[in-house]
Amino acid sequence: MIVVTADQVASRTNADLAGAERDRIQRDHGEKLLLPVARNAGDEIQLLTRDARTVVEVVFELTRDGAWSVGIGCGDVRDPLPSDIREASGEAFFAARDAVERAKKSSPRLAIEAAHDDAEHVESLFKLALLLRERRSEQGWEVYDRIVAGAMQSQIADELGVSAPAISSRMKSANIRAELDAVPALARLLENLDSSTGARA
């Protein structure tokens, strides 16, 4: 199984984000989670899932504005699952804890822990994707948000009042197609890490 533990950056000086982010993730991804998202230790949120694609999506969402340090842990989880994730335990939780602590000292703020030799390589590929996203302009994000919502390029051009070639140029500059193509690959690599650490299907 896969645990994501996210800790808010500079939570003592910035507005509290944990409650709203917990609720958003539960609303957007709840059907793929094994337990409700929980707020833990004040400024930390935690989720548990078997679905690697959901993890990729959540990681991309959390790291978009640099407001969170994110740790991913793969491994077994103690059965039976409790009703509250804060009462759950197992290797995946310990791995996620180690990962988020390491993520706080990393740039970008992401780390992956798993009992597999490829964990370091998978982490490197995730970080490469996050670095590309960090370079995206506001105009690039305008297009990205509409693309992932299902809009066609012609529709986006009409909405933004620009030409279709201009949208194509923005997509290229923002590496949007490259990212969308990479998401399934990142999910598969993470899934392989999880399955190889003995996670129960």
Spell out the key features of this protein:
single chain; 201 residues; alpha+beta; Alpha-Beta Plaits; 2 domains; 5-stranded mixed beta sheet; 8 helices; 51% helix; 13% strand; globular
Written account of the structure:
The chain has 201 residues and is an alpha+beta fold. The protein folds into two domains: 2-133 and 178-199, Alpha-Beta Plaits (2-Layer Sandwich), CATH 3.30.70; 137-174. Helices cover 51% and strands 13% of the residues. The protein is built from eight helices and five strands, in the order βαββαβαβααααα. It has helices spanning 18-29, 52-63, 91-103, 119-134, 138-148, 153-160, 164-173, 176-196, and strands at 2-8, 38-40, 44-49, 68-74, 110-113. It has a five-stranded mixed beta sheet with strand order 2-3-1-4-5. Strand 2 and strand 3 form a beta hairpin. Helix 4 packs antiparallel against helix 8 (176-196) and helix 6 (153-160) crosses helix 7. The N and C termini lie close together (8 Å). The mean pLDDT is 95. This is DNA-binding protein. Keywords: DNA-binding.
Describe the structure concisely.
This protein has 201 residues and is of the alpha+beta class. 51% of the residues lie in helices and 13% in strands.
